[in-house]
Structure formats: structure tokens, C-alpha cells
Amino acid sequence: MWQLFFYNLFLRLYVVIARLIQGGNKKAALWLKRRKNIFEQVSFAFQNNMAAVVWFHCASIGEFEQGRPLMEQMKLKFPSHKILVTFFSPSGYEAKKDDTIANWVFYLPMDSASNAEQWIKITNPALVIFVKYEFWYYYLNIIRQKNIPALLVSGIFRANQPFFKWYGRMHQNMLHCFQHLFVQNQESKKLLEGIGLANKTTVAGDTRFDRVLHIAQEPYENKLIEQLIENRQVIVAGSTWTEDDEALDHFANTHPELFFIIAPHEIDEDRISECKTLYKNNICYSNLQAGADCKDKNVLIIDNIGMLSRLYRYATISYVGGGFGDDGVHNVLEPAVYSKPIVFGPVYDKFFEATALIELGGAFSVDDAITLEQVLNKLLTHPDFYANACNISGSYVQQQAGSTSGIIKYIQENLLLTN
After folding, report:
1. Which of 133, 192, 284, 319 is deepest in the core (most CB within 10 A)?
2. Domain 2-205+402-413, second-level architecture
3. Minimal CA–CA distance to 299: which of 349, 335, 252, 356?
């Protein structure tokens, strides 16, 4: 099949390009380094394992957070089972390699017939769960051949994807490898029904709603930040890219009475330096921890990974980055769960929750620095308008929760795992 030829070509080119750019690209270097001798590492880790294994595959950190509610429930419902998590991206693996929710965390070896065969032979999963997307042809085919039940959770599909095109037979075959597909919305279900998956598809919503609710309910305090904020109104800008900071910096620099928490999506030295240049009265979180002078500072730059989802609780208004880039806005549910209005750039159409929040009035899209400042000023100076947006965002998250329990119920009723 010609689609498979081009798929294999893509995989080979991906590795070649990673090797070519690894000298100047930290992610590519990590991607290659961590996969070196991967099967020796996995074989050593599994050599004495006698427990049943549930394998979760996540593209990156966002999908891991999406799958985490299921992992937590499996720990409770099936305590004798162990959890294996794999990542494709360096950012996901590096952030979660030591997370205690999983018994093992590895990079997924590059997709190939031999790698897939060897992986399944070593790990011997009782159940496989792919989170949201990233479909690997050889892995899914060996899973089907071995009659291992596989689920897709929090899946979301669009009509312009290859699955629904005349040339998408190979992609459709990958979806047919799943025993069941739990999707986020009716549009996805309708698309899957059109390629013969009606009996395998359930609209279960998005497990991210359950995850953000759990995070919001956990006790958290950060005295360093709370003392720095004092009684000021706070704008928390999370997962920002350069374009986001360039839209926001003028407002931050001209409103010293407000406090800004900036959490860049990337925290390498160059990116942090860029933020320090854009935001004049800044202090980095690492310097704050070290006791640096924070007098007259109104911008805190978060130069670590893992705090953001909990920092949104300090926000008067939340700004979510990514909306000025081609890939679109990042996770808007993390701030919404705290009943805060959300602002982001113009690229959000791939994300139904962002679209829904805009339509309801809990979120606002801006095209540039001028419209951003207009929206921020309106939210800060019109109490009724602000309160309405807060109520809408919080209520939306509460109403959409519950996906995890539906998936666990399916697993139990179909005896996919037994204690």
C-alpha cells in the first residue's frame, strides 16, 4: 500500500533530520539520546515483573495530564496492576519521568514492525490506552494481532484529517485497531460513524475536565508569591510564546499597580532572557526563592516547569499563550476551573472548549496588543461584566466533568482488567 511507503519514508526522514539538527537543537538531541539502548533499559526494568501492565501512551505532557485521572482511578480500582507510560516528545518525558503515578516511564521507540514486536514481547500489556491522538501504525497492528484490548480516550477528530479522506485507508485501519474510542464531542463521533466505527465510539467528553478539577481541589499555598502579590489584581499569563509576551509587555510595563505572573512555554536560557528584556520590573522565581530583592517588582517570571496549573488560582484574569501561533492556544481549562475569565490570541478554532467559552462569554480572543489591552481594561473596570465571565468559565468546567468514570465503567463491565 502506497500510504505505508510514505509513512515509512516519513519515519526515516524524521530520524535523519533529528540527527542533522541535534547539535543546535536540545529537543532533538534529547529525543535521540533517550532512545539509545531503549530496549536494554526496558528489558532490565521488566525482567522481574509478574504484575499485569496497563500501558498508556501520551504524545507529551498535556496528554499525560489528560490521562492522569484514569491512571489514578486504575490505581484505586485495580491495585494489583502496574502502569507503564510512554512519551514521544522530550518535553513530556523530561517533565514526568519521575512521576510516581507510573511504575515505569519511557520514550516510545520509533515505530517499526520489529520495534513494535519487541516492545509488546517485553512489556506484555494487558490493556493499552492511547490518549487523545498520535497513532502509530505498527504498534497498533501488533496490538490487534495479539488480541490486546486497546482504547482511545479523549479523542477528537476534524474532517480535514487523513482518516476521512480518499487517501486515508491506512489511517482508518489504525482506528479499527482500537476496541473502543472515547471521543470528546458529537462531531468526532459523526466523523467516525462515517468510516464504519459507529459501534465502537462513545462520546465521553474530555478527561482534562476531571484533571483540572482535581488540581483545583488540592490544597496549595505559595507564601513567596502571596507576599509578592500583596493585595494587587493579578494577571497570570501561562504557556506564553514570544508573540504573546510582545502583546502583553506594554500593558505590564505601564501598569505597575497590577501584578503579572508570566510562565513561558519554554524555559531555556534564551527564552527566559527574552522575557526579562520585555518585562522591565521583573524577578525570576528562582531568584525569588534565593532571597533576591523584589522591591518595586510587578512581574514574576516562572523559570521552572510544573507550577502553572496551580498558579492560575492567584489570577484576577488569566491569559493563555499559543493563540498567536499556528498550533493554537494551550490549555484554557486550567484557568477556567478557578472561575476566572480567560484571554488568548486569535488561533483557537481547533479547540472546542476555547470556542465554547468564547460563545458563552467566559473567554475572549484578541488580535493584537491593542485589543488585548482593551479587553483587560474592560474586565478590570466593569465589575458586573467581570463577574459574569467568572461564573461562566467555572460553571462550564463543572458541567463537563465525569469522563473518567464512564471509561472506568466500560473497562469494568467488559472485563478488560480483573483483580
Report:
1. 319
2. 3-Layer(aba) Sandwich (3.40)
3. 252
**Chain centroid to CA 342:** 18
Q: What pLDDT score does 30 carry?
A: 82
In tens, the pLDDT along 53-94 reads 999 999 998 899 999 999 999 999 999 999 999 999 888 898
Predicted structure pTM score: 0.86
Q: What is the CATH number of domain 215-400?
A: 3.40.50.2000
Domain residue extents for the chain: 2-205+402-413, 215-400
pLDDT of residue 418: 80
Same topology between domain 2-205+402-413 and domain 215-400: yes
For residue 34, the model assigns a pLDDT of: 80
- Residue 286 carries which side chain, given as an amino acid letter? S
Which residues does the chain have with pLDDT short of 50? none
Structural contact between residues 212 and 189, judged by C-beta atoms closer than 8 angstroms: no
